[in-house]
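Exercise 4. Each item below gives a protein and its sequence. For each, produce the structure-token representation.

Item: ABC transporter domain-containing protein (Noctiluca scintillans).
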Amino acid sequence: TLCRDFVAPELIGLTIVYSINMAGLFQYMVRNSVLVESFMTSFERLHHYEALPREADEGQHEPSGEFPREARIDVQDVHMRYRSDLPLVLKGLTFSLAGGSKVGVCGRTGSGKSSLFMALARLAEVTSGTLRIDGLDAASLSLSRLRRCISWVPQEPSFFTGSLRFNLDPHRTYADDTLWKTMKSVQMDEQMGDEGLELQISDGGSRFSCGERQLLSLARALLQHRRILCMDEAFANVDFETDNRVQAAVREMTSQVAATVLVIAHRMQTLADSDYILVMEDG
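Answer:
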């Protein structure tokens, strides 16, 4: 009664409506403050990553003309560890590979097979010894120049969110016909469906099986036609029939550029056509 005598009913209703709106506004402010806090955490992580030391890239030598011409690899007394406080993973490794040869690398788990590939691409620096490509010390080359001559099919391939074409050829260097031919060579053309090269890939390629992801990674490596091809258990999760077909495709495509091929495998069938076998034990 007192309010009705001093305040008009329509003003009371308007006050109640605005009070409800203010409650919603406060909830919105709380939600945004939580988002800002989470974004600041992401910013702190980016700042931390930006402060991490970069890869050592002291190599300045730029080979003239085509490199490598022969893709000959010479490893002399190479020692390597991943950090200064960790034990050696390569211990005096020494061997020579003729250009254009296929080399099977085998050994027990932890014997240093994948570490050899890491040293070759300088993803980890050797602590002593030399690793030469066509007579040039890999440490004398810039990282970009060295890695442009190496294709690597890892044990666990990585894929970006986007189309299949983007994952195979992010710089759009190759024609669609070349991409289709490469996909067919690794027996993956039927999995592309109606979408073809525009097939969308997300979550690291989760729509494909483990074996199919390895075949896609192999297609990406073969597409580049580089002189050194490193395959780390590239056929571990594919059936024997597909293994045989893809092996034939690898032989055909690498023979076109006389590539030196290094294959890590536990299957003897995968290593059967190798020119040399490198058996590793404890580095």
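Check: The chain has nine helices and eleven strands.
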